[in-house]
Amino acid sequence: MSTNAAARSEHATEGLHGRFRDVLYAADGSPVWDRGWVRNTIVADCRRLLAGFVRGTPTVSEATVGLAVGAGLAAWDASGPPNPSPTQTALVDGHQHLVPRAQLQIEFINPANGTVSAQPTGTLQLKAVLGPGVPAWPDAFHATSTLREFGLTARLNGTDILINYRTHIAIAKDPASTLERTIWLVF
Q1: Is 103 helix (H, G, I), strand (E, B) or coil?
Q2: What dihedral do alpha carbons 68, 37, 18, 132 form, nearest 10°?
Q3: What pLDDT, in 10s, does the model give residues 135-178?
Q4: How far apart are CA 126 and CA 143, in angstroms?
């Protein structure tokens, strides 16, 4: 088989994808809405991060740093959010809120039944809870506490990079509500 034929037929990362589910809770803990599972985008820098993990030294690849949430653009409310791009390198909101790794629940998931696995699998679940007052908006950069985008960040050679990105319908997160965001990365 020629090199070109092998390159055309190999799709080692074809199944690499993400999905997420948002559930918003009122101050009393009752669910306001559950948007169900939606696909999101694994961006190009995630592939660079994975290559760095496999290569090792001198590349310094660091696992997930956190979940960035942003306001996106208010114009998206009228036109609908743009589709996320696999070439996205940062959130549109230059002053996003970061939920640090220490506040994320990260677990391997058995893809056959969706249960937590003590052993590594090809599915990773990251769960973030943005409780009352999180993010602390409005502030000098945000007129409201509305969320319209998010992304997972990691670090490659000392630089924060985006590995997953999604725009979404505006979430008007009032100061008393709680947003539970669950993200699956399927490798």
Answers
A1: helix
A2: 20
A3: 999 999 999 999 999 999 999 999 999 999 999 999 999 999 99
A4: 28
What's the one-letter identity of residue 37? W
Please tell me the chain's helix, strand, coil percentages from 3-state DSSP, rounded to the nearest 5.
15, 45, 40
Give the global pTM: 0.89
Identify the CA nearest to 82 among candidates 41, 111, 52, 47.
41
CA triple 120-56-117, angle to 5 deg:
5
